[in-house]
């Protein structure tokens, strides 16, 4: 854009401007430049795409962005629906959910900050996407986003590499489920979650937030809730972690946590 006036990013909720990582600027002053700064962390796909695009293209793309404040339990995409938007997770955790014929929900995957959803260049969603925690989402019109990729070969290449990284991530989650004992699965889950999400530190130790209820986590890891409770306490007794509360775990020994998983968790995120 040649006018020298940057486009203002739209907010789906007026409160969101103050919670999106650009809170130092009044809502009406929030520009594409400020939004680019907000997503420039975590080495995610969107950050790489924006860096690969010409500044004018980046500006046009971000001018189409909308920020959403998502509540726990909100459904973003229904299974079988073709989303008109592409979503990028800025904060929080989303679940990929299969709903069985008896109405029971089965969580088959998690989406964490820097993950993208919306099945670009593809058909309907195979899963329902819903929020496990309060989340912040940056969305773009799907058709516009796809056209930007088509018109920019380097950005399209990065997207294809991202798809390969997703295959590696799926293999990693399969390793998680393959643990022989519940303690192996819990250790794998915490190790992967620590690496893939932002976490707080208290002193030298990371505190990992698990957004799932114990019932949902048990279903996800293929174990009973009481078995998971024993597994968490076993890891605590081993000196691997400290249980802060049912959703927060202070990792005392990261290498011991990886060893307790019993699997090769050396895959690196792209």
From TrEMBL:
Residues 49-166 form the Cyclic nucleotide-binding domain. GO terms for cellular component: cytosol. Keywords: DNA-binding, Transcription, Transcription regulation. One of its GO terms (molecular function) is DNA-binding transcription factor activity. Gene3D superfamilies: Jelly Rolls. Residues 180-255 form the HTH crp-type domain. SMART domains: cNMP, HTH_CRP. It holds the Pfam family cNMP_binding. This is Crp/Fnr family transcriptional regulator. It comes from Pseudotabrizicola alkalilacus. The lineage of its organism: Bacteria, Pseudomonadati, Pseudomonadota, Alphaproteobacteria, Rhodobacterales.
């Amino acid at each position: 854009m040649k006018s020298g006036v940057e486009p203002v990013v739209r907010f789906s909720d007026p409160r969101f401007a103050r919670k999106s990582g650009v809170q130092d600027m009044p809502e009406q002053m929030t520009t594409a430049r400020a939004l680019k700064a907000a997503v420039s962390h975590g080495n995610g796909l969107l950050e790489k795409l924006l860096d690969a695009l010409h500044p004018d293209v980046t500006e046009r793309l971000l001018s189409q962005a909308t920020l959403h404040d998502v509540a726990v339990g909100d459904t973003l995409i229904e299974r079988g629906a073709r989303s008109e938007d592409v979503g990028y997770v800025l904060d929080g955790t989303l679940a990929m959910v299969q709903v069985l014929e008896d109405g029971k929900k089965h969580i088959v995957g998690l989406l964490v900050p820097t993950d993208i959803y919306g099945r670009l260049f593809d058909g309907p969603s195979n899963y329902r996407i819903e929020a496990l925690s309060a989340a912040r989402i940056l969305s773009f019109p799907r058709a516009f986003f796809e056209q930007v990729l088509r018109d920019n070969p380097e950005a399209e290449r990065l997207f294809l590499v991202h798809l390969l990284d997703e295959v590696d991530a799926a293999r990693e989650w399969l390793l998680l489920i393959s643990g022989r004992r519940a303690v192996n699965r819990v250790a794998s889950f915490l190790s992967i979650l620590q690496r893939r999400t932002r976490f707080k530190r208290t002193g030298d130790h990371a505190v990992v937030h698990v957004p799932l209820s114990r019932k949902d986590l048990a279903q996800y890891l293929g174990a009973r809730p009481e078995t998971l409770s024993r597994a968490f306490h076993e890891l605590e007794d081993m000196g691997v972690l400290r249980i802060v509360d049912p959703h927060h775990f202070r990792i005392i020994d990261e290498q011991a946590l990886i060893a307790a998983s019993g699997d090769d968790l050396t895959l690196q995120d792209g």
